[in-house]
Amino acid sequence: MTRAEFMGRLRRGLVGMPAAAADEIAADYEIHFEDGAAAGRSEAEVAAALGDPDRLARELRAEAGAQRWHQEQNPSAAAGAIFGLIGLGAIDILILLPIVFPVFGAVLAVLVSGVAIFLAGGAVLVAGPFLGAPGGVLAAILMGVGLMGLGLFMGGLMAVLTKWLIDATVWYARLHYRVLKPALDNQPQAWGRN
User: Quick check: 98 and 131 in contact, CB under 8 A?
Assistant: First the structure.
């Protein structure tokens, strides 16, 4: 991506912000390109290092809204902060939903299947010896224990996978925390005072 393409997309993403703030942000990113050129880097390398300009604009708008709320604390500033954060999250939701629903659905399906297999194994273990199962009493008991073991394995595997998915979600949320951190750090700690 060229400098002009990157800056055009960044400026389009900053539409709606106060003009002075948008111009200051754009000037900062122009400096990145100038510094990169002075260091012998191509425009494409600098643009790749800076990341997606559309996402960057959403993050900058959210951060600007949070900072404005900290400075002004009026309904207009609150609305700007809320809409900036919703805009940041809305795109993420649209990107993540096609990935998250099938993954969590599959985990839930395997977990439910594991519970059903465990219960079926318990039923075979208890009733199998009395129903004249093929292979005799020992085969029915071993089959019941085996099915219960498979059900426990599936449940344990899904517990580990669920933990990994939750950790990944927390990691992803922490990526966005850096947008809010400057505004949160400057908030007064009123609940600790008497």
Answer: no
Per-residue model confidence as pLDDT tens digits over 61-70? 777 766 666 6
Torsion angle (degrees, nearest 10) of CA 96, 177, 175, 75? 50
Per residue in 137-156, pLDDT (tens digit) is 888 899 999 999 999 999 99
Using CA atoms, how far residue 110 sits from 99, 132, 149, 150, 163, in Å, is 17, 31, 14, 11, 15
> Per-residue DSSP letters for 76-123?
HHHHHHHHHHHHHHHHHHHHHHHHHHHHHHHHHHHHHHHHHHHHHHHH
Question: How many Å apart are CA 103 and CA 40, to the nearest integer?
Answer: 44
Alpha-carbon distance of 160 to 152, in angstroms, equals: 12
**Distance from C-alpha of 187 to C-alpha of 182, rounded to nearest angstrom:** 9
Q: Chain-wide mean pLDDT for the chain?
A: 77
Question: Which pair of structure tokens corresponds to residue 171?
Answer: 């990691």
pLDDT at residue 110, as a whole number? 93
d(CA 175, CA 138): 56
Residue 140, classified by CB atoms within 10 Å of its CB into exposed (0-12), middle (13-18) or buried (19+), is: buried
What's the pTM value of the predicted model, to 2 decimals?
0.46
Question: What is the mean pLDDT of the segment spanning 179-185?
Answer: 48
| Location of structure tokens 């996978």 | 161
Residue labelled with tokens 């709320």: 69
